[in-house]
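Go through this one:
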Amino acid sequence: MGNESRIEALRKEINQHDYRYYVLNEPTIADVEYDALMKELESLEKAHPELVTPDSPTQRVSGEPAVGFEEYLHLRPMLSLDNSYSIDDLGDWVRRCGKLAGEEDLDYVAELKIDGLSLSLIYEGGQLQRAVTRGDGVRGEVVTGNARTIRSIPLRLADEEPLPAGTIEVRGEVYLPMAVFAQINAEREEQGLPLFANPRNAAAGTMRQLDPRIVAERRLEIFCYQVLLDGQPPFATHHESLEWMEQHGLRVNPTFARCRDLEELIDYCSRWNEGRDELPYEIDGVVVKVDQVRLQEMMGATARSPRWAIAYKYPARQASTRLLDVVYQVGRTGAVTPVAILEPVRLAGTIVSRASLHNRDEMERLGVLKGDWVFIEKSGEIIPQVLKVITDRRTGEETPFDFPADCPVCGVELIRPTGEVVSRCPSISCPAKIREGILHFSSRRAMRIDGLGEALVEQLTLPRQGVPLVSGIGDLYRLRERRPELLDLERMGAKSVDNLLDQIERSKEAGLARLIFGLGIRHVGERTAKILANHFRSMQRLMQAEPEELAGIYEIGEVVAAAVHAWFEAAENHALIGRLEGYGVRMVIDDDNGSSSGTVERVFEGRQFVVTGTLPTMKRDEAKSFIEQRGGRVMSSVSRKTDYVVAGEEAGSKLDRARELGIMVIDEAGLLKLGDPTQ
């Protein structure tokens, strides 16, 4: 095969894998195999630059930072939507649509209202030519370089069927997944940078970055909701346009539903209001549209909003309460975080008594005083945060807070590196840093040592006759020698002690990726740990890697490379790895599954599962691990692509959605039977 043919074949194969991974959530190859394809393509294009094309997968992040954004006039205005805040408002809108439609029967399409920012993607000849923000609805800013880094945006539309002639415009909502938002804020806190208030602000700020490389690092996603051909709707119904986009490689939110009347719309809105916290992204309501395009055109629009669509907004997840005090927590990197102690208040279905104040600068910006009334907000799974002070409610009895000059745990003077907003404890022996490091190491996402919770870690790290039982993560693997002392701890009977020691022993086989993540290396999250594990296959090789080699790994980059190299350069960390290896912690990948715990027949290969409710004996992470070890994928929401829903007690809206779509529902026993190839 010639170079040109091989390059084209590689591009097609990589595009297909991108589509399966970023759009369908159904990858068919391991990350290391994908990286090999990308590296081969990069090598061939480097040797033959005349063959590089704008839609090549290698060109998602390229070029120098822009100096600004040019403006672009939308082919068709990107109008905003009128809002409704109650079922009565929604009912009034349905009745207005009925009057406008006359004798016509109306159908509706309901879609989740993603809390992000609108983006227009313009394709010519099937190739992405331009990406434009909504702007003021008439003119937007061209952000094509940034949009190309979003891997769920195809650079070329799938064309198994011939594409229509003309300019294809696809509109969608760009958003930041909740898990990525939490990770970015954790990293910004470590770096001493201001935190993003919510995922929407983070996504909006990211799309206005002048350097596409920064955008690529933040891993934005998109859901597409409209397609136009030369500025006009090309299909008779809205739901047909959603299906067309799915067929051509564009990512559409799988939860959309066709509704016949107000009752079905109310049911959809209520169902997702209850289930919104289970989604991996933030929503703030539901968008309802008249399905028939002919009727949309007949109803028309006002100066700013279409009459045939409306946004049903969920109640704001904000509340007001009194700020009683501030306490200061020390994290595993030494960052000192102020936490507001609140008069308990109900918010988003739970009682809230604590909220984040982020850092000293944020406290000063807000101007909080002891006794103030404040607004707080809860966003998804993120800890509530203080939004602002209600100064009109001050009585004059409020008093200021003094941010500590010394570590509130160990008393060492805090430092604040130049350019950072976070104050840190520099002591390597700070009990709080040690405790947080152990909790991170033993967490379910890392080495998964069940039973090693905050209360027990607190006891293990407290000095007993001058010396704690555990002074770092390496000491966990020596606890079997100190069983009699464990029996002396509060609420630690013989059975509890033996269970803990068994869990610690099992953690030795957790796998290289979990171990790397558990070490707590700065900037190394779960995905980065998996990339490093799959690339190096052993801890020894990773320890020997130079910054240049690390930075050359796909999705790593210079910042992460420097942090990883610096961590392994430290003598105490070298010694720690040696101790862990001496205790028998597995530090190599020696099977085809990227795990070191033995091979399991991959009977779930290519199948998607959703786990919901409380299972009789398995925890959620255990069920997820059981499925993934056998080649399946566990998704957070039910869609048409879901193969099985594993339901326990109090399964809720996911079970209802599965029944609505006719998806197979099984219990824990059914899952175990399905996963046993001998049955």
Q: What stands out?
A: Residues 62-66, 591-599 have pLDDT under 50 and may be disordered. The chain has six domains: 3-59, 83-313, 318-393, 431-507, 512-582, 608-674.
